[in-house]
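Protocol step 6 of 9: fold each sequence in the batch and record its C-alpha coordinates directly after the sequence line. For illustration, a two-sequence batch is reproduced in full.

Sequence one:
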Amino acid sequence: VVIFTANVLQDNRNYDVLLRQIKSSGADIIFLVETDQAWEKALSGLESAYPHTIKCPLDNTYGLLFYSRLPLREPEVLFRTERDVPSIKAEFLLPSGKWVRLYGLHPKPPVPHESLSSTAKDKELMKVAFEVENEKDPCIVMGDLNDVAWSHVTELFRKVSGLLDPRRGRGFYSTFSADHWWMRFPLDYIFCSAHFGLIRMKRLPYNGSDHFAMVTHLRYEPSLRKVHEEPQADAEEEQEAMEKANS
Protein backbone atom coordinates (compact mmCIF):
# COMPACT_ATOMS: atom_id res chain seq x y z
CA VAL A 1 0.00 0.00 0.00
CA VAL A 2 1.33 3.43 -0.97
CA ILE A 3 0.48 6.20 1.50
CA PHE A 4 0.69 9.94 0.83
CA THR A 5 0.67 12.17 3.92
CA ALA A 6 0.99 15.95 4.15
CA ASN A 7 0.35 18.93 6.36
CA VAL A 8 -0.67 21.28 3.55
CA LEU A 9 -0.55 24.55 5.59
CA GLN A 10 -4.08 25.91 5.66
CA ASP A 11 -3.23 29.27 4.03
CA ASN A 12 -1.14 27.66 1.28
CA ARG A 13 -3.03 27.88 -2.02
CA ASN A 14 -0.60 25.99 -4.24
CA TYR A 15 -3.22 23.35 -4.89
CA ASP A 16 -1.86 22.31 -8.26
CA VAL A 17 1.58 21.56 -6.84
CA LEU A 18 0.14 19.19 -4.25
CA LEU A 19 -2.13 17.55 -6.82
CA ARG A 20 0.86 16.89 -9.08
CA GLN A 21 2.74 15.35 -6.18
CA ILE A 22 -0.19 13.09 -5.36
CA LYS A 23 -0.57 12.01 -8.98
CA SER A 24 3.11 11.19 -9.41
CA SER A 25 3.24 9.31 -6.08
CA GLY A 26 0.91 6.53 -7.19
CA ALA A 27 -0.72 6.69 -3.76
CA ASP A 28 -3.44 4.26 -2.72
CA ILE A 29 -4.48 6.37 0.27
CA ILE A 30 -4.02 10.06 1.02
CA PHE A 31 -4.17 11.81 4.39
CA LEU A 32 -4.02 15.62 4.50
CA VAL A 33 -4.16 17.89 7.54
CA GLU A 34 -4.68 21.66 7.99
CA THR A 35 -7.34 21.42 5.28
CA ASP A 36 -10.21 23.89 5.17
CA GLN A 37 -13.20 24.08 2.80
CA ALA A 38 -11.11 25.82 0.15
CA TRP A 39 -8.77 22.82 0.14
CA GLU A 40 -11.70 20.41 0.01
CA LYS A 41 -13.09 22.20 -3.05
CA ALA A 42 -9.71 22.39 -4.78
CA LEU A 43 -9.09 18.66 -4.28
CA SER A 44 -12.58 17.50 -5.25
CA GLY A 45 -11.24 16.11 -8.51
CA LEU A 46 -9.42 13.41 -6.57
CA GLU A 47 -12.69 11.66 -5.84
CA SER A 48 -12.95 10.10 -9.29
CA ALA A 49 -9.80 8.07 -8.58
CA TYR A 50 -10.24 7.97 -4.80
CA PRO A 51 -13.97 7.41 -4.23
CA HIS A 52 -13.72 6.40 -0.55
CA THR A 53 -13.37 9.49 1.62
CA ILE A 54 -13.47 10.80 5.17
CA LYS A 55 -13.78 14.57 5.41
CA CYS A 56 -13.71 17.06 8.22
CA PRO A 57 -12.57 20.39 6.73
CA LEU A 58 -12.15 23.12 9.34
CA ASP A 59 -10.81 26.68 9.33
CA ASN A 60 -8.90 26.30 12.63
CA THR A 61 -5.82 24.54 11.10
CA TYR A 62 -7.05 21.13 12.32
CA GLY A 63 -9.20 20.10 9.36
CA LEU A 64 -8.68 16.61 7.87
CA LEU A 65 -9.20 15.13 4.42
CA PHE A 66 -8.73 11.43 3.63
CA TYR A 67 -9.03 9.79 0.21
CA SER A 68 -8.68 6.11 -0.68
CA ARG A 69 -8.72 3.94 -3.79
CA LEU A 70 -9.25 1.01 -1.45
CA PRO A 71 -12.65 0.22 0.10
CA LEU A 72 -13.26 1.46 3.65
CA ARG A 73 -15.15 -0.07 6.54
CA GLU A 74 -16.46 1.70 9.65
CA PRO A 75 -14.99 5.14 8.86
CA GLU A 76 -15.21 7.56 11.79
CA VAL A 77 -14.28 11.12 12.65
CA LEU A 78 -13.42 11.24 16.34
CA PHE A 79 -12.76 14.10 18.76
CA ARG A 80 -10.67 12.27 21.34
CA THR A 81 -9.47 15.08 23.56
CA GLU A 82 -10.78 18.42 22.26
CA ARG A 83 -14.00 19.18 20.41
CA ASP A 84 -12.26 21.21 17.70
CA VAL A 85 -9.44 18.70 17.00
CA PRO A 86 -10.62 15.73 14.91
CA SER A 87 -8.92 12.46 14.11
CA ILE A 88 -9.98 9.59 11.87
CA LYS A 89 -10.32 5.86 12.32
CA ALA A 90 -11.26 3.30 9.68
CA GLU A 91 -10.34 0.00 8.09
CA PHE A 92 -9.22 -0.31 4.49
CA LEU A 93 -9.21 -3.42 2.33
CA LEU A 94 -5.98 -4.61 0.72
CA PRO A 95 -6.19 -6.30 -2.70
CA SER A 96 -5.29 -9.53 -0.89
CA GLY A 97 -8.60 -9.33 0.99
CA LYS A 98 -7.04 -8.36 4.33
CA TRP A 99 -8.53 -5.49 6.31
CA VAL A 100 -6.09 -3.02 7.92
CA ARG A 101 -6.97 -0.73 10.82
CA LEU A 102 -6.00 2.88 10.17
CA TYR A 103 -5.69 5.92 12.46
CA GLY A 104 -5.05 9.47 11.22
CA LEU A 105 -4.02 12.06 13.80
CA HIS A 106 -3.08 15.72 14.13
CA PRO A 107 -3.01 16.55 17.84
CA LYS A 108 -2.46 20.08 19.08
CA PRO A 109 1.09 20.95 20.14
CA PRO A 110 1.65 21.89 23.79
CA VAL A 111 0.58 25.37 24.81
CA PRO A 112 2.14 27.49 27.58
CA HIS A 113 -0.53 26.90 30.25
CA GLU A 114 -0.40 23.10 29.96
CA SER A 115 1.55 20.85 32.28
CA LEU A 116 4.77 19.74 30.64
CA SER A 117 4.19 16.23 32.01
CA SER A 118 0.74 15.78 30.46
CA THR A 119 -0.62 17.66 27.45
CA ALA A 120 -3.65 17.20 25.20
CA LYS A 121 -1.25 15.83 22.59
CA ASP A 122 0.11 13.25 25.03
CA LYS A 123 -3.41 12.26 26.03
CA GLU A 124 -4.53 11.66 22.44
CA LEU A 125 -1.39 9.71 21.54
CA MET A 126 -1.68 7.45 24.59
CA LYS A 127 -5.39 6.81 24.01
CA VAL A 128 -4.56 5.60 20.50
CA ALA A 129 -1.55 3.63 21.76
CA PHE A 130 -3.77 1.62 24.12
CA GLU A 131 -6.31 0.97 21.36
CA VAL A 132 -3.58 -0.30 19.07
CA GLU A 133 -1.96 -2.36 21.82
CA ASN A 134 -5.03 -4.61 21.82
CA GLU A 135 -5.23 -4.91 18.02
CA LYS A 136 -4.43 -8.34 16.63
CA ASP A 137 -4.92 -7.33 12.99
CA PRO A 138 -2.51 -5.17 10.97
CA CYS A 139 -2.55 -1.52 11.90
CA ILE A 140 -1.18 1.83 10.69
CA VAL A 141 -1.07 5.17 12.56
CA MET A 142 -0.15 8.28 10.60
CA GLY A 143 -0.20 12.05 10.70
CA ASP A 144 1.46 15.21 11.96
CA LEU A 145 2.01 14.30 15.62
CA ASN A 146 3.62 17.63 16.59
CA ASP A 147 6.41 15.77 18.37
CA VAL A 148 9.97 14.92 17.38
CA ALA A 149 11.00 11.32 16.82
CA TRP A 150 13.41 11.25 19.76
CA SER A 151 11.02 12.65 22.37
CA HIS A 152 10.03 10.66 25.43
CA VAL A 153 6.35 10.77 24.46
CA THR A 154 6.94 9.47 20.93
CA GLU A 155 9.07 6.64 22.32
CA LEU A 156 6.40 5.88 24.91
CA PHE A 157 3.75 5.77 22.16
CA ARG A 158 5.89 3.35 20.16
CA LYS A 159 6.45 1.02 23.11
CA VAL A 160 2.85 0.95 24.36
CA SER A 161 1.34 0.55 20.88
CA GLY A 162 3.94 -2.02 19.83
CA LEU A 163 4.15 -0.35 16.42
CA LEU A 164 7.26 0.02 14.29
CA ASP A 165 8.68 3.32 13.05
CA PRO A 166 9.89 2.51 9.49
CA ARG A 167 12.35 5.43 9.51
CA ARG A 168 14.41 3.99 12.38
CA GLY A 169 17.87 3.18 11.12
CA ARG A 170 17.16 4.88 7.79
CA GLY A 171 17.32 8.58 8.63
CA PHE A 172 15.26 11.34 10.22
CA TYR A 173 13.17 12.35 7.17
CA SER A 174 12.70 15.78 8.77
CA THR A 175 9.48 17.32 7.49
CA PHE A 176 9.32 20.65 9.33
CA SER A 177 10.17 23.42 8.66
CA ALA A 178 10.34 23.41 4.88
CA ASP A 179 11.05 27.15 5.11
CA HIS A 180 14.31 26.78 7.07
CA TRP A 181 16.96 24.40 5.73
CA TRP A 182 19.14 24.86 8.82
CA MET A 183 16.47 23.88 11.37
CA ARG A 184 14.29 20.89 10.51
CA PHE A 185 12.63 18.21 12.61
CA PRO A 186 10.67 14.99 11.94
CA LEU A 187 7.07 15.74 12.92
CA ASP A 188 5.10 13.73 10.34
CA TYR A 189 4.93 9.97 10.88
CA ILE A 190 3.74 6.61 9.76
CA PHE A 191 3.85 3.83 12.35
CA CYS A 192 2.92 0.30 11.34
CA SER A 193 2.44 -3.08 12.96
CA ALA A 194 5.03 -5.82 12.46
CA HIS A 195 2.90 -7.30 9.65
CA PHE A 196 4.47 -4.75 7.26
CA GLY A 197 7.81 -4.29 5.57
CA LEU A 198 9.07 -1.02 4.11
CA ILE A 199 9.62 -0.88 0.36
CA ARG A 200 10.45 2.82 0.20
CA MET A 201 9.99 6.10 2.03
CA LYS A 202 10.49 9.47 0.39
CA ARG A 203 10.28 13.09 1.45
CA LEU A 204 8.90 15.15 -1.43
CA PRO A 205 10.07 18.60 -2.63
CA TYR A 206 8.74 21.92 -1.39
CA ASN A 207 5.07 22.46 -2.27
CA GLY A 208 4.26 25.77 -0.59
CA SER A 209 3.63 24.35 2.88
CA ASP A 210 5.91 24.66 5.89
CA HIS A 211 5.88 20.83 5.99
CA PHE A 212 7.24 18.49 3.34
CA ALA A 213 4.87 15.77 2.13
CA MET A 214 5.88 12.12 2.58
CA VAL A 215 5.26 9.01 0.49
CA THR A 216 5.60 5.64 2.21
CA HIS A 217 5.25 2.29 0.45
CA LEU A 218 4.51 -0.61 2.82
CA ARG A 219 4.10 -4.27 1.95
CA TYR A 220 1.78 -6.49 3.97
CA GLU A 221 3.69 -9.68 4.74
CA PRO A 222 2.43 -11.51 7.88
CA SER A 223 5.57 -13.66 8.12
CA LEU A 224 7.54 -10.52 9.00
CA ARG A 225 6.06 -10.67 12.52
CA LYS A 226 8.53 -13.49 13.18
CA VAL A 227 11.42 -11.29 12.06
CA HIS A 228 10.62 -7.84 13.42
CA GLU A 229 11.40 -7.04 17.02
CA GLU A 230 8.25 -5.38 18.31
CA PRO A 231 8.77 -2.65 20.93
CA GLN A 232 7.29 -3.32 24.35
CA ALA A 233 6.54 -1.12 27.35
CA ASP A 234 7.44 -2.23 30.85
CA ALA A 235 5.04 -1.89 33.79
CA GLU A 236 6.30 1.56 34.74
CA GLU A 237 5.90 2.84 31.18
CA GLU A 238 2.40 1.34 30.92
CA GLN A 239 1.47 3.15 34.13
CA GLU A 240 2.87 6.46 32.88
CA ALA A 241 1.00 6.11 29.60
CA MET A 242 -2.24 5.28 31.43
CA GLU A 243 -1.89 8.40 33.56
CA LYS A 244 -1.39 10.54 30.47
CA ALA A 245 -4.36 8.93 28.69
CA ASN A 246 -6.62 9.59 31.67
CA SER A 247 -5.33 13.06 32.55
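Sequence two, same batch, same settings:
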Amino acid sequence: MKVQFTASALRRLQQIRDYYRKNGNPTKGGKITKQVFKQSNLLKDNPYMGQEEEYLKPLKQGHRYLLVDKMYKLIYLVAKPIIYITDVFDTRQDHDKMKP
Protein backbone atom coordinates (compact mmCIF):
# COMPACT_ATOMS: atom_id res chain seq x y z
CA MET A 1 0.00 0.00 0.00
CA LYS A 2 1.00 3.61 -0.51
CA VAL A 3 1.09 6.26 2.26
CA GLN A 4 0.04 9.79 1.39
CA PHE A 5 0.01 12.84 3.66
CA THR A 6 -2.86 15.29 3.30
CA ALA A 7 -2.09 19.00 3.01
CA SER A 8 -3.45 19.59 6.51
CA ALA A 9 -1.20 16.88 7.99
CA LEU A 10 1.85 18.41 6.30
CA ARG A 11 0.84 21.85 7.63
CA ARG A 12 0.58 20.37 11.12
CA LEU A 13 4.09 18.90 10.83
CA GLN A 14 5.39 22.29 9.76
CA GLN A 15 3.66 23.90 12.75
CA ILE A 16 5.35 21.39 15.07
CA ARG A 17 8.79 22.13 13.57
CA ASP A 18 8.15 25.88 13.76
CA TYR A 19 7.05 25.64 17.39
CA TYR A 20 10.22 23.87 18.49
CA ARG A 21 12.41 26.15 16.36
CA LYS A 22 10.89 29.25 17.98
CA ASN A 23 11.18 27.77 21.47
CA GLY A 24 14.87 26.94 21.20
CA ASN A 25 14.84 23.24 20.38
CA PRO A 26 14.89 22.79 16.59
CA THR A 27 16.38 19.30 16.86
CA LYS A 28 13.28 18.16 18.76
CA GLY A 29 11.02 19.28 15.90
CA GLY A 30 13.20 17.43 13.40
CA LYS A 31 13.22 14.32 15.58
CA ILE A 32 9.43 14.28 15.79
CA THR A 33 9.13 14.75 12.03
CA LYS A 34 11.49 11.82 11.40
CA GLN A 35 9.50 9.64 13.80
CA VAL A 36 6.25 10.55 12.04
CA PHE A 37 7.67 9.47 8.68
CA LYS A 38 9.17 6.31 10.20
CA GLN A 39 5.80 5.34 11.75
CA SER A 40 3.97 6.13 8.51
CA ASN A 41 6.30 3.78 6.61
CA LEU A 42 5.38 0.96 8.98
CA LEU A 43 1.78 1.34 7.85
CA LYS A 44 2.63 0.24 4.31
CA ASP A 45 2.89 -3.37 5.45
CA ASN A 46 0.61 -3.18 8.50
CA PRO A 47 -2.17 -0.67 7.77
CA TYR A 48 -4.38 -1.77 10.65
CA MET A 49 -1.70 -1.77 13.35
CA GLY A 50 -3.04 1.38 14.99
CA GLN A 51 -6.06 1.63 17.26
CA GLU A 52 -9.32 3.17 16.13
CA GLU A 53 -9.53 6.85 17.02
CA GLU A 54 -12.38 7.14 19.49
CA TYR A 55 -12.97 10.85 18.92
CA LEU A 56 -13.44 10.38 15.17
CA LYS A 57 -15.78 7.38 15.33
CA PRO A 58 -18.85 9.56 14.61
CA LEU A 59 -17.45 10.05 11.08
CA LYS A 60 -17.75 6.28 10.52
CA GLN A 61 -14.72 6.29 8.22
CA GLY A 62 -12.42 4.10 10.33
CA HIS A 63 -9.77 6.62 11.37
CA ARG A 64 -6.92 5.03 13.30
CA TYR A 65 -3.85 6.36 15.09
CA LEU A 66 -0.31 5.56 16.17
CA LEU A 67 1.50 7.35 18.98
CA VAL A 68 4.63 9.27 18.09
CA ASP A 69 7.00 10.52 20.79
CA LYS A 70 4.26 9.88 23.42
CA MET A 71 2.78 13.32 22.71
CA TYR A 72 1.48 13.10 19.16
CA LYS A 73 -1.10 10.97 17.43
CA LEU A 74 -0.50 10.12 13.81
CA ILE A 75 -4.10 10.02 12.58
CA TYR A 76 -4.69 8.01 9.42
CA LEU A 77 -7.37 6.50 7.24
CA VAL A 78 -7.04 3.30 5.22
CA ALA A 79 -8.65 3.70 1.80
CA LYS A 80 -7.06 0.89 -0.22
CA PRO A 81 -4.72 1.16 -2.03
CA ILE A 82 -3.77 4.38 -0.20
CA ILE A 83 -3.30 5.13 3.48
CA TYR A 84 -4.03 8.80 4.10
CA ILE A 85 -2.25 10.53 6.97
CA THR A 86 -4.87 13.12 7.91
CA ASP A 87 -3.40 14.76 11.02
CA VAL A 88 -0.60 14.82 13.56
CA PHE A 89 -2.46 15.69 16.74
CA ASP A 90 -0.77 16.97 19.89
CA THR A 91 -2.25 14.86 22.72
CA ARG A 92 -1.72 17.70 25.20
CA GLN A 93 -4.56 19.56 23.49
CA ASP A 94 -8.20 19.17 24.32
CA HIS A 95 -9.37 16.10 22.39
CA ASP A 96 -12.67 17.84 21.69
CA LYS A 97 -10.75 19.85 19.06
CA MET A 98 -10.51 16.61 17.12
CA LYS A 99 -14.24 15.90 17.10
CA PRO A 100 -16.08 16.47 13.82
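Proceed to step 7 once all outputs are recorded. Observation for sequence two: The chain has a mean pLDDT of 92.
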